[in-house]
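Backbone description:
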Amino acid sequence: MRSRSIGQALGLEHLYFKYEGLNPTGSFKDRGMVVAVAKALESGSRVLMCASTGNTSASMAAYAARMGVRAIVVVPSGEIAMNKLSQALMYGAKVVALKGNFDTALDAVREVTSRYPVALMNSVNPNRIDGQKTAAFEIVDELGDAPDYLVLPVGNAGNITAYWKGFREYHGAGASTRLPRMVGAQADGASPIVSGHPVEQPRTVASAIRIGNPASWEGATTARDESGGTIGAVTDTEILAAQVRLAATEGLFCEPASAAPLALLFRLVREGRIKRDATSVVVLTGSGLKDPDAALSNVEPPIELDGDARTLAKVLKL
């Protein structure tokens, strides 16, 4: 959807948002998961397993419930938004909270799935990437061509890998005449690709990108380098400010990780690194209802009032 406020304020003539919060479980993960689950069932798997900071677990659990197979989710203890965890639990998944961070959980899951008849459903599964690349197809179909810049969050880095694959495939098939510059956003406290080395204890309010050693690191740097793009880091303060501004001015409520690319766009525009006449698309990867607690700490609480309509009008200065 085209920006009605932020683009004008930034002087960007062609700013668009791709909002993935309307997918069945509220995030972009459904694109890849539906393909990965289908291929797992095709191969005879009846047990699905993933490590997750939240969105992957919700998506996998939903499709497992739909197809009547077992879902096992491993999450880093105390590092997952409760709304996302509640989705996995409601869909009937077996959830294990493992001490350590996401990277610890993923290492454990990869070892288990290599030893037992259990299907690995994280983005290292190539079927996930093939499902997620369809988002790039949709952007080209909607705009008539690829944008000049695609800006998106980078956590485990499967999504930037998938988008780049999708754009290259559509370009090669003649559906687009150009390829976008891929711009990835990490959080300051969880920016391994920006710093060039793993982060042992990643810290950020944006739990979906709180990852210190991305499984698709190489895919992300390939997308960045081949496209002539960049991957930068923004602070939690910038992320939350962008989240509030997006909701208040565009009517789009996204989770903190989804606001990271918008925060980075603000910075790049200020620095003159985004051409104002360029077509830019910011990918909002998940609904704000995934992690409302982070947002509520940055907005005014409800006004509590005793009184009648006259008192209400007076307080509201009507």
The beta strands are 14-19, 47-51, 70-76, 94-98, 119-120, 149-153, 181-187, 230-234, 279-284.
